[in-house]
TrEMBL record:
Gene Ontology MF, one: complement binding
Superkingdom of the organism of origin: Eukaryota
Protein name: CO8G protein
Gene giving rise to this polypeptide: C8g
GO biological process, any: complement activation
Pfam name, any one: Lipocalin
């Protein structure tokens, strides 16, 4: 159900980098592929310095349906990913938790989603202590569809 192309619409996070660079947000798409019926292969396409990059990640299944684990280098860099709410035909809200830090992302099947979906996303963000001050919306134009072989990052964040 999660397979296919998604557009990153919004993100709520206390990430200081995003706060300082929010004026430089780039249109971002994600392609999700369900592997072996459980884990997810994620390809994120975005621009960096006007070049299209692909970032490949692997979300491993966790203890319950709708929960995944993104492993980084070392034990401290694992990220728990939880599907908060989804309508596979239009949107998905994902929670990312690393230690005590939590972020919420809204993805849509198109770069624009209706106001009711945005309201759900903002309510979910507020419920975990993320106000509109730390909620960012991404551009709806200028997407990358691919990256050349020299602009692929394989691995974990």
């Amino acid at each position: 159900q999660l397979s296919g192309k998604w557009f990153l619409v919004g993100m709520a996070t206390h990430c200081s980098y995003l706060a300082e660079h929010s004026h430089q947000l780039e249109a971002t798409t994600v392609t999700m592929t369900v592997l072996d019926g459980q884990s997810l292969a994620i390809s994120t396409f975005r621009k960096l310095d006007r070049m299209c990059w692909e970032i490949r990640q692997h979300y491993l299944p966790a203890q319950a349906p709708g929960r995944f684990l993104l492993k980084g280098e070392g034990d401290c860099s694992k990220v728990d990913v939880v599907v908060g709410e989804a309508d596979p035909s239009s949107f998905i809200i994902l929670y990312y938790q690393k230690g005590h830090s939590i972020s919420v992302k809204l993805y849509g099947r198109s770069s624009l989603v209706n106001d009711a979906i945005v309201d759900k996303f903002e309510q979910r963000a507020r419920a975990v202590g993320l106000s509109e001050d730390v909620t960012y919306y991404f551009p709806t134009y200028g997407f990358c569809d691919s990256a050349d072989e020299f602009h692929i990052l394989d691995g974990e964040l």
